[in-house]
Amino acid sequence: MHQLTPAQLKHWLDTGHEFVLIDVREPWEHDIYHIGGLLIPMGELAARATEIPRNTDVVLYCEKGIRSVIAIQRLEAAGYTNLYNLAGGMNAWRAADK
Q1: pLDDT by residue for the chain (98 residues), tens digit each?
Q2: 62 to 3, 15, 45: CA distances (angstroms)
Q3: Residue 24 DSSP code
């Protein structure tokens, strides 16, 4: 499983790296704070897997980086090989932004 630090993700954002960003948290968590991307709660991943591209990098994130790891494991079992986890999730992103 690929991991991205908040600094690496910020670099991707700043340099225009082509990727899709997916928040796997619940809608209420997304409403409080997010860094953009598509909201696909972990419980909806299987039903919405067709929305996740296989031909470009995809970064998944959650609050602490645990749910996104689980989501990536499930997607990798379905054949995805282009997935990255935001290490530490939103907690790490907010800490790095200070």
Answers
A1: 899 999 999 999 999 999 999 999 999 999 999 999 999 999 999 999 999 999 999 999 999 999 999 999 999 999 999 999 999 999 999 999 75
A2: 13, 23, 13
A3: -
The residues assigned a catalytic role are 62
- Entry pTM: 0.95
The token pair at 67 is 């749910």
DSSP codes joined into one string, 30-54: HHHS--SSEE--GGGTTTTGGGS-S
Token duo for residue 44 = 């909806």
Q: Which CATH superfamily is domain 2-96 in?
A: Rhodanese-like domain (3.40.250.10)
Provide φ and ψ at 3, rounded to 5°: -120, 145
